[in-house]
Design brief:
Order of helices and strands: HHHH
Largest sheet: none
Strand content: under 5%
Length: 70
């Protein structure tokens, strides 16, 4: 099996599919973060679970940017 081929295909599908609409992705709208594809949705969910929920804002580039605006 050629894993790179499967990874590329998965990435392509994520970029072609519509974004998820759920509480997590909706919360990002207040920061004017775009959610155009399923790839974006998965990234926002990952950021939320890895950084936001753990209160690791200062370890996150997005969190730092948001906090520096205030």
């Amino acid at each position: 099996m050629n894993e790179d081929e499967f990874k590329q295909k998965a990435m392509q599908w994520l970029q072609e599919l519509e974004p998820e609409k759920n509480t997590i992705t909706e919360n990002w709208k207040q920061y004017k973060i775009e959610n155009k594809t399923a790839f974006d949705s998965q990234a926002l969910i990952h950021l939320t679970k890895t950084y936001c929920n753990e209160k690791l804002c200062l370890n996150c580039a997005v969190g730092n940017k948001i906090l520096s605006k205030n």
